[in-house]
Amino acid sequence: MDRTVSCCFTGHRPDKLPWGTREDDPRCLALKERLDRAVERAYAAGCRHFLCGMARGCDLYFAQAVLDLRARRPDVTLEGVRPCESQADRWPEEERARYQAILDQCDYETLVQHHYDRFCMMRRNRYMVDRSARIIAVYDGVPRGGTAQTLAYALRCGLETDILELEGEP
Question: How do residues 78-108 score in pLDDT, each as one tens digit?
Fold first, then answer.
């Protein structure tokens, strides 16, 4: 896939979201709207291929936003980038079903490695950044963790960035 038309994503899991898993929270609904607009901006900037790390929380919100865009723009493709085969094995059943439903709709699926190790998430994140010209990030500003590391790597690599700040308490 051509890097110049590719956009990846990084963002937080439910444990770092002020609303946790309560997706009916107004802050979550507002974030999903902002993600929809960010995906539209990426499309307007020429991105047609979107890479998603398929983690719980913001990654799956992003994947859904891309699938919604693809329903309107058939030239859009979604690549589900899995860090390892067991990624969703310990998730709650409802989230595993959602993960699989999204994965089933991906145009491409990439498995970074077969078995989990402590570096597989970082390898997944670098795979996505190395194949993208743009990154959309949902970021709370805390300078540690996978989202911060991925965003820092993307900035070092010169990717165009669209950072959506995570809003706290209402």
Answer: 999 999 999 999 999 999 999 999 999 999 9
Tokens of 157: 């690599």
Q: Is the dihedral of CA 167, 16, 27, 51 positive or negative?
A: positive
Question: For the chain, what percentages of helix, strand and coil (3-state, to nearest 5) are there?
Answer: 45, 20, 40
Tokens 């956009």, residue located: 7
pLDDT, residue 40, reads 98
**Which amino acid makes up residue 123?**
R
> Residue 82 is encoded by which pair of tokens?
């899995």
What's the CA dihedral at 29, 34, 38, 41 to 10 degrees?
120
Residue 60's φ and ψ, nearest 5 degrees, are: -70, -30
List CB contacts of 119: < 8 A, sequence separation 6 or more: none
- Going by CATH, does the domain composed of 3-142+152-165 fall within 3.10.50.40? no
Contact yes or no for 64/102 (Cβ under 8 A) = yes
Q: Where are the domains of the chain?
A: 3-142+152-165
Does residue 168 surpass a pLDDT of 60? no
At 163, list the tokens: 């950072």
